[in-house]
Specification:
Elements (H helix, E strand, L loop, with lengths): L4 E6 L3 H22 L7 H7 L9 H16 L7 E2 L2 E2 L2 H18 L4 E6 L2 E6 L8 E5 L7 E6 L5 E8 L8 E2 L4 E2 L4 E8 L2 H14 L1 H10 L4 E6 L4 E3 L9
Antiparallel strand pairs: 1-4, 2-3, 4-5, 5-8, 6-7, 8-11, 9-10, 11-12, 12-13
């Protein structure tokens, strides 16, 4: 998946949680082996070349591709699993893998879990009594500064995902042209319960541009968003304020 993952795990029986953490890390490595488009021997690369049938892949491949198809449908094609004519589900798989890792730790008894995959975060439970998880959203115009702070107060699960050009340059593709997306946006942050969808929606919204993205995001269930334009204008969905703090 080409990025660094970090974990913050609170509570639970230490032995069980430690074992679950080792398993979660192993699952992330396995996901990279299966889904990496940079590895010629990954199942996704072999599937894209026609060297491997879908029913011969790990079951997770079909699961992820079904989720990608749903993301493509709900975004009216702005989310795509095709890059330079080849199968590429990486716009969704990182969020899916991080969310799955967090849920595995919760199932093992952890009371609070934060899994951060390259800046996209899945939160579950709480870090301590009467203390919600909080996630800072970087301001792309002012390195080291924050554009907002998202709070998970009052919810059991929250995900925060950002797509933009500040960290990785023009890496998001316009699926209509196959070329880097040219929009008025520099960053889109999506907040929702599941990182699988928050990650995909942030990518699709960035490719759309602010004029189309804001209205589309407003219509999505369980999603709020912060959009920052190249002119340093900040636009938000109507319910985002309730998640800031």
């Amino acid at each position: 998946m080409g990025t660094v993952f970090s974990f913050d795990v609170r509570g639970g029986e230490p032995g069980a949680v430690r074992a679950a953490l080792d398993e979660a890390v192993g699952r992330l490595h396995r996901a990279d082996e299966v889904f990496s488009t940079y590895r010629d021997d990954s199942q996704v690369s072999r599937l894209a070349r026609g060297d491997l049938a879908l029913d011969a892949c790990d079951p997770e491949v079909a699961e992820v591709l079904e989720l990608c198809a749903e993301a493509e449908r709900l975004s009216e094609g702005w989310f795509s699993t095709t890059y330079e004519g080849r199968l590429d589900p990486t716009g969704l798989v990182k969020g899916w893998a991080a969310e799955r890792a967090a849920r595995h730790l919760v199932a093992a008894g952890a009371e609070g879990v934060s899994v951060n995959g390259g800046g996209d975060v899945q939160l579950c439970g709480v870090p301590g009594p009467h203390r919600p998880w909080r996630v800072g959203v970087s301001d792309p115009a002012r390195p080291g500064a924050l554009a907002a702070v998202v709070s998970a107060a009052g919810v059991d699960e929250l995900a925060v995902a950002t797509s933009g050009t500040a960290e990785r340059g023009a890496h998001i593709v316009d699926p209509r042209t196959g070329r880097p997306a040219v929009t008025d946006l520099v960053a889109v942050t999506v907040v929702g319960p599941r990182l699988t969808w928050a990650d995909a929606w942030a990518t699709a919204a960035f490719a759309m541009g602010s004029r189309s993205a804001l209205g589309w995001l407003e219509e999505l269930p369980d999603a709020e968003a912060l959009l920052i334009t190249a002119g340093d204008e900040v636009r938000c969905t109507g319910g985002l304020a309730a998640r800031l703090g």
